[in-house]
Amino acid sequence: MKRISFLFLLAFLTLMFISSCTDSVTYAQQLKTEKATIAAYIKRHNINVISKAPRFSAWGPNDYLLTSDGLYFHLVDSGDVITDIKDTMKITVKANNAVIPRYKEYILDDPASLDLPGDTLITNKWSTSTYPYTDTFKYLDYTTSCVGFHEAVGLMRRNGAVARLIIPSKIGFNSSDVRPFGYDLIIKIQK
Predict the structure, then answer these.
(1) C-alpha span between 156 and 76 (Å, rounded)
(2) For 33, which of 39, 108, 117, 191 is 20 to 30 Å away at the CA?
(3) Residue 144 neighbours by CB under 8 Å, 6+ apart
(4) Are 125 and 135 in contact (CB under 8 A)?
(5) Which segments in the chain show pLDDT lower than 70?
(6) Separation of alpha carbons 55 and 63, rounded Å
(7) Where do the DSSP E strands lie in the chain?
(8) Which candidate, 72, 64, 104, places its Cα nearest to that of 184?
(9) What is the total count of domains within the chain?
(10) Range of the structural domain that residue 175 is part of
């Protein structure tokens, strides 16, 4: 019995050693691939990367702000219009406000290399018809959502704002998968 256990353990350890040797892609190589994926996506979609956010009404159709954390951000709609200075306090996001995000998540890899049509939608939480349960997180409580969403909400600021995002893995939802994702995001702010 001991001999069988020993042989089983030896076979298991050998298998583990062989499998670890075949997975030779380093984290640095994965980051390089992620960066190349983002660059190819930017080129495919004629995105103009900018370093300073324009005023709400001055965003070009393909202008994406690149933040210091690596978020690519494009404001589609600035959300609720402020008509009175007193309204600013009502509709502008503040720390610990509850934020209800509705979003579509996309794979950014070249669709041709994946044999897929166009940008591939993988998660659709855009409306209650596609996803009836709402996700909620507290703004600036980084334990409740990814850094990329918090940063985007800070740039969106207003209830009903809509943005398009490219979020690299280091500020995304899944830190174990070194892959960037694209998002269409709309937010609702609860006080």
Answers:
(1) 10
(2) 117
(3) 137, 138
(4) yes
(5) 1-23, 56, 82-90, 110-119, 126, 129, 175
(6) 12
(7) 48-50, 63-66, 72-77, 98-107, 120-125, 137-138, 162-167, 181-190
(8) 104
(9) 1
(10) 26-190
| 151 within 8 A of 69, measured Cβ to Cβ | yes
Q: How far apart are CA 109 and CA 179, in angstroms?
A: 9
Alpha-carbon dihedral sign for residues 52, 97, 187, 151: positive
89: CATH: 3.10.50.40
Q: What is the identity of the amino acid at 82?
A: I
- Between CA 35 and CA 159 the distance in angstroms is 32
Token output for 118: 């166009």
Q: Is residue 14 part of a domain?
A: no
Q: Residue 167, exposed/middle/buried by CB under 10 A (0-12, 13-18, 19+)?
A: buried
Tokens 């959502």 belong to which residue?
145
Around Cβ 121, how many Cβ atoms within 10 Å? Answer: 13
> What is the predicted pLDDT for the residue at 113?
52
Residue 155 phi, psi dihedral angles, 5° rounding: -80, -30
Indicate the pTM of the whole model.
Answer: 0.79
* Rounded CA separation 8/48 (Å): 57
10: in domain: no
pLDDT for residue 6: 47
